[in-house]
């Protein structure tokens, strides 16, 4: 494929465009207006159903569980004090519980030290009572007696209250809600935050740490979006400042800005017209890539225009020549970047498919805005006399000539370049094999963000556990759960789960709760409160009697863990942290044990949001890796086709593979996990990095067709677009470096991954790519013109 022939076609297109510039501008305005009007129809959300291909099954299982036991969501307050049985602390707990119950939607009941149902032995047998039913006693000895009694209950210690009485939970049990989590958390979290922020709950005597799935999900979305929007807007400002410094042209600043905003609004607007629902958490990739490409495309075109304008002084002719020199390279980068983003379609996850499609469309839209606005806007103005300063340098500036000199030095030391590149790759490749594919919440988020620090403090506390899941055991026959062997097997399962890596353990006690703790507590009460009686009775009739007596005595906790017909029960497992890969491994063991211990159960398995998202993370990361591999293959094929040379295609792939290898090696050595964010950012970096590769390789091939000499072609390319490649990379790195200021590790990772990736791609483009082209000579044999332009 002759580049000169293609460039000649783009030259004709440039002349046609300049001649009909008003028509092009009008069409662009019309398309932009129509697209923008569609924004009102656009739907963006982060619905959980979009992340699961088997969402119907997942939702059905979750709904079935909640139909039996109620909502798995709750609002929590982890309370820390010198002594949580201090009268002031107890009164605060009581008042806080009442406020939350009255003000938070879906609040159903409170579980706290002030709201307990405990069996107490009496002359007739026992009764279920709440120690603080009549309020906090004023008598110190009476309060000490109640404290001692509560701390003697094995079912409560290190579950509801710590053994040293410095920590306790206040739990707001929520009703089952029909909305999805996103909608529910917007109703639950704000009023809860208002209660927690009330000045009357601030004191040196205690510390209140709010938590709960809907509460923390709301915080996470609010904080993440705030940091994302702030850094994207700051990056946009940095882009404008850099363009001002490098381009020094109002049109060169306005066009990238209009192109970024116009491409995004138009693309999303047409998505709205077509009724395509988007995902707000994935839109970041589209925005970042649009900004980056708008800069890259603009700088390449503008610098080409300036070079020709310095030589000729003729504005419209310079515009046409710039379209000739840049048009095909820009268009081909669009095709490869679109192909790379469309590789997301291979991930098999709806939000990833959406972001792949919408980003590919936005990439093309950015190109359309740039290729229309820049020639049209730069066509207005007067011609000028050619600058005599640049007559002998073919329009090159001093900076261009310095870059050319650097290129000559690289070619002169070509084998040093090859060896240095090989050694660098050999050094980082082992690091790739050290990468762990995992999502660890603590590592991803870090502790510099206040709400994340609070959650991690809760998780590390004696009672704390931010995440949990449920193990459902359901039989066909009523009263099946009353079978002592079933209850004993539940305890065996609880003991085994307690050995798993992610299960929370407080003072040697695994945080696994079930109905067995009530049965054992009741049995102990009926047996003179002997500690050795804290067991499951062997007699089913006795188990039935215990449950019946507990119920008629006013106990309220029994049906928290068991169904009304005694066909189903569940174990609640609290987690020490959120390590996605470990959770998936733990769940595999749990499912194996459930099948072994409850072979006759009609329905047995694991449910809970944390389970779903651990599995989703694994699928998402692997889907992203698949996308990276797919995009590399697609880009390689396109490069081979474009340059009609397998060797050229492979050589051109090197600067695109280098960033991925380098990033992977650094991540492995630094112990940074490959999670859903780092995996998804790779295709974006690849999509940006491939641009300079195509421009440089295409330019070299074009000049080789003109001169028939590899060295001359490479040196000419260094001179003509070498400075542009540096400018675009510096601007993009400055934009992405803004993410390094974030308090969230996940956004910091986006920053350094992008800077390292783009920087290494530029170095590879400057060094190994031209050297290999010079050595391999993939465009054919040289002719005898020895660098002179053929006519």
Automatic annotation (TrEMBL):
Looking at the UniProt entry, the stretches that span the membrane are: 20-39, 228-247, 253-276, 283-302, 328-347, 354-378, 415-435, 625-644, 650-672, 725-744, 750-775
**Which keywords annotate this record?**
Cell membrane, Membrane, Transmembrane, Transmembrane helix
Give GO cellular component annotations, separated by semicolons.
Answer: plasma membrane
Name the domain of life: Bacteria
What the entry lists under InterPro entries is as follows: MMPL_dom (IPR004869), Mycobact_MmpL (IPR050545)
User: Predominant location of this chain?
Assistant: membrane
Membrane topology value: Multi-pass membrane protein
In terms of Pfam families, this protein maps to:
MMPL
Specify the protein name: Patched family protein
Q: Which source organism does the UniProt entry give?
A: Treponema saccharophilum DSM 2985
**Taxonomic classification:** Bacteria, Pseudomonadati, Spirochaetota, Spirochaetia, Spirochaetales
């Amino acid at each position: 494929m002759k580049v000169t022939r293609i460039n000649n076609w783009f030259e004709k297109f440039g002349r046609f465009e300049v001649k009909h510039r008003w028509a092009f501008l009008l069409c662009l305005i019309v398309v932009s207006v129509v697209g923008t009007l569609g924004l009102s129809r656009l739907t963006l959300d982060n619905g959980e159903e979009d992340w699961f291909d088997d969402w119907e099954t997942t939702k059905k299982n979750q709904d079935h569980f909640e139909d039996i036991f109620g909502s798995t969501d709750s609002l929590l307050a982890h309370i820390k004090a010198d002594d949580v049985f201090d009268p002031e602390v107890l009164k605060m707990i009581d008042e806080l519980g009442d406020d939350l119950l009255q003000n938070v939607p879906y609040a159903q009941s409170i579980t706290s030290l002030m709201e307990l149902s405990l069996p107490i032995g009496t002359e007739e047998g026992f009764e279920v009572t709440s120690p603080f039913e009549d309020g906090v006693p004023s008598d110190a000895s009476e309060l000490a007696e109640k404290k001692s009694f509560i701390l003697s209950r094995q079912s409560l210690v290190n579950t509801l209250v710590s053994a040293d009485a410095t920590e306790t939970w206040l739990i707001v049990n929520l009703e089952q809600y029909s909305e999805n989590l996103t909608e529910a958390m917007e109703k639950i979290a704000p009023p809860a935050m208002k209660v927690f922020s009330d000045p009357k709950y601030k004191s040196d005597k205690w510390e209140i740490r709010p938590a709960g799935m809907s509460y923390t999900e709301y915080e996470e979305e609010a904080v993440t979006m705030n940091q994302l929007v702030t850094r994207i807007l700051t990056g946009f400002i940095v882009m404008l400042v850099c363009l001002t410094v490098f381009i020094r042209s109002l049109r060169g600043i306005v066009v990238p800005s209009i192109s970024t905003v116009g491409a995004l609004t138009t693309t999303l607007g047409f998505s709205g017209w077509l009724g395509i629902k988007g995902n707000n958490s994935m839109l970041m990739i589209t925005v970042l890539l649009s900004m980056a490409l708008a800069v890259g495309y603009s700088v390449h075109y503008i610098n080409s225009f300036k070079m020709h304008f310095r030589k000729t002084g003729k504005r419209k002719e310079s515009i046409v020549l710039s379209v000739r020199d840049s048009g095909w390279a820009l268009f081909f980068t669009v095709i490869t970047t679109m192909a790379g983003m469309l590789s997301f379609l291979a991930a098999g996850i709806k939000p990833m498919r959406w972001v792949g499609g919408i980003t590919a469309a936005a990439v093309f839209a950015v190109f359309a805005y740039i290729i229309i606005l820049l020639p049209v806007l730069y066509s207005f103005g007067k011609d000028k006399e050619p600058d005599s300063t640049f007559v002998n340098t073919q329009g090159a500036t001093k900076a261009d000539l310095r870059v050319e000199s650097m290129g000559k030095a690289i070619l002169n030391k070509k084998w040093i370049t090859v060896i240095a590149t090989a050694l660098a790759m050999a050094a980082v490749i082992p690091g790739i094999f050290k990468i762990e594919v995992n999502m660890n919440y603590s590592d991803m988020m870090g502790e510099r963000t206040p709400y994340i620090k609070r959650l991690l403090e809760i998780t590390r506390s004696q009672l704390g556990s931010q995440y949990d899941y449920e193990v459902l055991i359901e039989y066909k026959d009523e009263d099946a759960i009353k079978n002592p062997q079933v209850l004993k097997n539940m305890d065996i399962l609880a003991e085994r789960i307690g050995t798993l890596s992610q299960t929370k353990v407080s003072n040697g006690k695994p945080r696994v709760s079930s109905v067995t703790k009530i049965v054992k507590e009741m049995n102990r009460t009926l047996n003179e409160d002997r500690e050795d009686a804290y067991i499951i009775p062997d007699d089913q009739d006795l188990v039935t009697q215990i449950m019946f007596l507990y119920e008629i005595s006013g106990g309220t906790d029994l049906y928290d863990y068991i169904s009304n017909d005694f066909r189903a029960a569940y174990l609640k497992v609290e987690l020490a942290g959120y390590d996605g890969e470990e959770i998936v491994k733990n769940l595999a063991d749990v499912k194996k044990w459930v099948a072994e211990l409850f072979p006759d159960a009609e329905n047995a398995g694991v449910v809970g949001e944390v389970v779903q998202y651990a599995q989703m993370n694994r699928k998402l990361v692997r889907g992203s890796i698949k996308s990276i591999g797919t995009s590399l293959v697609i880009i390689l094929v396109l490069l081979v086709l474009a340059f009609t040379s397998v060797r050229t295609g492979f050589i051109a792939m090197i600067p695109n593979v280098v960033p991925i290898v380098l990033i992977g090696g650094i991540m492995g050595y630094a112990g940074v996990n490959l999670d859903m964010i780092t995996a998804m950012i790779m295709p974006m970096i690849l999509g940006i990095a491939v641009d300079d590769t195509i421009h440089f390789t295409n330019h070299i091939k074009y000049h080789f067709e003109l001169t028939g000499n590899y060295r001359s072609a490479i040196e000419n390319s260094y001179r003509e677009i070498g400075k542009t490649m540096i400018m675009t990379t510096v601007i993009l790195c400055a934009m992405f470096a803004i993410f390094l200021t974030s308090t969230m590790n996940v956004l910091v990772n986006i920053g350094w991954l992008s800077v390292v990736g783009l920087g290494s791609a530029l170095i590879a483009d400057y060094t190994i790519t031209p050297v290999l082209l010079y050595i391999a000579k993939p465009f054919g044999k040289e002719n005898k013109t020895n660098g002179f332009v053929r006519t």
